[in-house]
Amino acid sequence: MNYDTFLSRAAEKMQQSAIRQMGTVAAQVPDIISFAPGYPSPDAFAWDAYREIASDLLGGRDGGVLQYGPTRGYKPLLETLVGLLERRGIAATPDQLMVTTGSQQGLDLAARVLLDPGDVVLLELPSYTGALTAFANAQASLVGVRQQPDGIDLDDLETVTARLAREGRRVKALYVVPNFQNPTGLLIGRPKRGALLEWAARHDTLVIEDDPYGELAFDEAITAADTRPIKADDAAGRVIYLSSFSKTLAPAFRSAWMVAPPPLAAKFEVAKQAIDLCTGSFDQRLVYEACRRGVLDRQIPTLRDLYRRRRDAMENALKCATGIGARWVTPRGGFFLWVTLPDEVDTTRLLPHAMRRGVIYVAGRAFHVDGTGHQTMRLAFSAATLERIAEGIGRLAAAITEQRAAPGPAPAPAAAIPAVP
Amino acid sequence: MNYDTFLSRAAEKMQQSAIRQMGTVAAQVPDIISFAPGYPSPDAFAWDAYREIASDLLGGRDGGVLQYGPTRGYKPLLETLVGLLERRGIAATPDQLMVTTGSQQGLDLAARVLLDPGDVVLLELPSYTGALTAFANAQASLVGVRQQPDGIDLDDLETVTARLAREGRRVKALYVVPNFQNPTGLLIGRPKRGALLEWAARHDTLVIEDDPYGELAFDEAITAADTRPIKADDAAGRVIYLSSFSKTLAPAFRSAWMVAPPPLAAKFEVAKQAIDLCTGSFDQRLVYEACRRGVLDRQIPTLRDLYRRRRDAMENALKCATGIGARWVTPRGGFFLWVTLPDEVDTTRLLPHAMRRGVIYVAGRAFHVDGTGHQTMRLAFSAATLERIAEGIGRLAAAITEQRAAPGPAPAPAAAIPAVP
Fold first, then answer.
1. CB–CB contact A252 B66 (8 Å)
2. Per-residue pLDDT tens for B147-198?
3. A21 touches chain B (CB under 8 A)
4. What is the spatial distance between Cα A44 and Cα B290, in angstroms, rounded to a whole number?
5. B54 touches chain A (CB under 8 A)
6. A250 touches B: beta carbon within 8 Å
7. CA A54 → CA A65, A66, A68, A255, A282, distances in Å?
8. CA dihedral B63, B68, B70, B73 (to 10 degrees)
9. Which residue of A has its CA nearest to B58?
């Protein structure tokens, strides 16, 4: 039976991601070192604390622990979020807040509540693939904006916006990851953050600000003012802010949140009702208790230290791999190191060679809405140990050297968009 | 700031459900007895078993417990599902299976992968509101089919299909809940199940079969043949089957699953990647261990007994409430008793009166895609104790008697669609 005639137009365009196919193959390669998905380090999870919390919660005294819950989220967790946001400079009221089943759901909700087919969304070049696919599934038109070492290129943003205006196309939203961006690790500079709000007001558009990594700054010189969310200064109500516990507590709890102007938050709630009714009650209570008992506060410095050492290990290994021609901007926080290789290297073509040598990454083209980036790759330093990072970069360098010695013809056609965090 | 110009067409039509607004008010009424949401009984959750399982899982030996997981689901759980489905008569292969974040996500996935604006979906009159809103959010055209005491009316199904065909409109899918339907508690008779497959083949359409309650039969006379899913005899691959652990283990684990022909299952997986990446790993492992350690098997007879007694209590209380003119078909399983009152009663208008007397239900119109059902209501007998059920029906009868003595003018306008399980 042929199911093609049953598919929606959105589904016709959905494609199994090349990366996930690679992932399946990779799982069969023994001893593979993965720099591909942005996984937090499982050694750093607060296992003992969660075991104690779970045991307390499952005593059966509160039936709500295992029951359906309100779509907006578990009320004590929402109240905790108000305090957590306050520390980031965001004064959020409960009617602006909603818990989401991971930040990916927040992106999907934003897409569904805001976007019709053909609506324009601007994204950084490169940008997070999960956002890209969420917006693409709403059949939005995705347009890229260049980046500089201090984040999004404001001149290019104006140029792109002006070009779209001339074409009669309105920009509905700009999607940005200002703190230690996925995939580049870049930090948007302080003056640029205010400028983005001005740009949004001038062009009557929204900003979707995704901030999963803001707490994970490595550099002592980075202050709260440097990672201060754009949302913190959003007096006009143009910013939808997303953040998550996946990178600080654990991804398995699927607990993240959105902050949005009340009329939009109300729409997100109604949309979520029909999407998954509610985020898991047990998960939300685990997260709430982890905040209440100080687990989150204790985790942050530990994680900063851990990931800084891993970042250092990866950078050092790359510096030692002379001859591969790798260039990068040192990430000052987060999970990712973004590598640009010489033009003749195609990282999509390189991938099977790298896999044969026992290392995997995400090819850069999947992060570019304009199909560029064939010579780039995203390396996650978050999940591998220091020894494995050094070993993995060695394997990668060998694969690159091999491909540069015998390069293929033209770059391969654009790869499908992967869905990895 | 006015956000209306930022909303998608789908979002413009989304409305906060009247029931949830009622729910918020209800939460402020002390001692309210709720027959509204289809919540399982928290006293019946296997608290001790979950505490033990959680403690074992959180020992930290397997980092995957708190990590991101594959979009399709935790592999051992998928293998368990193969066995569980086999007992229901369904021979599913792993490439047909996917874990979903609750069955609501399965409904949403079906909507997004199959439906474009204007596509026709048939639903029973009445039908589950969560399905209704999921399909409505895809801007599908929802058409109702009448029911009889043994489920969907096949003559009306043919009449409706023929009328649509004359209008040049193709039916993409029929949504049914064959076992102890939400909201009516009806069981589709055995001959009708085969007839639905023939109907689907004749009209080249799909069937979305939702089966959360199939295990919860009360009546000794009901055999596995009576609750045998339509999917079990689906040689042609026209049925998408959904089921869940929410009603047997606990809703908080947000663990449900879909069975679909492999090409559709592949699309569901890709869609889910951009919707929430994966269902929670910890939740899936809790459910897997609950299956492996026999918790699920031990729960089923306990739950059947518990819910049968509650059904009996509600029926007896209704029988005693002579003079309210209530009619119903005895539900032989599941969570719900569907009441039809005399025509002059409008259950939407009745609701505030009932609330004032300390009892709440879901007004029936929200379950009808054609706006009928003003004199019907859904009563969930699953969550209240025997005493509270008797007391609650007494309160309800008093409210009905009061409204019948002083009926309002015409029925109120159609209520917004609620999102409760």
1. yes
2. 999 999 999 999 999 999 999 999 999 999 999 999 999 999 999 999 999 9
3. no
4. 27
5. yes
6. yes
7. 10, 12, 17, 16, 8
8. 90
9. A51
- A108 close contact with B: CB closer than 8 A: yes
DSSP B19-33: HHHHHHHHHHSTT-E
Q: List the pLDDT tens digit at each of the 421 positions of chain A.
A: 999 999 999 999 987 655 555 566 666 778 999 999 899 999 999 999 999 999 999 997 899 999 999 999 999 999 999 999 999 999 999 999 999 999 999 999 999 999 999 999 999 999 999 999 999 999 999 999 999 999 999 999 999 999 999 999 999 999 999 999 999 999 999 999 999 999 999 999 999 999 999 999 998 899 999 999 999 999 999 999 999 999 999 999 999 999 999 999 999 999 999 999 999 999 999 999 999 999 999 999 999 999 999 999 999 999 999 889 999 999 999 999 999 999 999 999 999 999 999 999 999 999 999 999 999 999 999 999 999 999 999 999 999 999 888 766 655 544 444 445 6
The CA distance from A299 to B365, in Å, is 50
Nearest 10 degrees: Cα torsion A277, A138, A338, A397: 100
Distance CA B375, CA B407 (A): 12
Token representation of residue A384: 């591998």
pLDDT on residue B417: 41
What backbone phi and psi angles, to 5 degrees, belong to B242? Answer: -120, 140
Q: What is the C-alpha R_g of chain B?
A: 21
CB B37 within 8 A of CB B380: yes
Asked if A200 and A174 count as a contact pair (C-beta separation under 8 A), the reply is yes
The interface predicted TM-score (ipTM) is 0.94
Asked whether the beta carbons of residue A47 and residue B55 sit closer than 8 angstroms, the reply is: no
User: Could you give the dihedral angle defined by the CA atoms of residues B383, B384, B385 and B389, in that order, rounded to the nearest 10 degrees?
Assistant: -140
Please tell me the pTM assigned to this model.
0.95
Are the beta carbons of A236 and B1 separated by less than 8 Å? yes
| Partner-chain contact B267 A60, CB within 8 Å | no
**Please, is B412 exposed, middle or buried when counting C-beta atoms within 10 Å of its C-beta (0-12, 13-18, 19+)?**
middle
Which of A143, A146, A148 lies closest to A163, judged by CA?
A143
> How many C-beta atoms lie closer than 10 Å to residue A353's C-beta?
16
Residues of chain A found within 8 Å of residue B138, distances taken between Cβ atoms: 8
Buried b or exposed e, range B101-124, using 16+ CB within 10 angstroms: bbbbbbbbbbbbbbbbeebbbbbb
In the numeric block, which tokens belong to residue B322? 């002579």
pLDDT of B109 over the 60 cut: yes
Amino acid identity at B313: A
Q: Please, how many CA atoms are within 13 Å of residue A374, restricted to the half-sphere of its CB?
A: 13
With CA atoms as reference, report the closest residue to A275 among A96, A95, A100. A100
| Residue of A255, A267, A272 to mutate for B, most B C-beta atoms under 10 A | A267
Return the structure tokens found at A306. 């851990």
The CA distance from A111 to A271, in Å, is: 11
Structure tokens at A119: 């609506």
- Which of chain B's residues have a Cβ under 8 Å away from the Cβ of A141? none
Taking contacts as CB-CB distances below 8 angstroms, the residues of chain A near B1 are: 236-238, 261
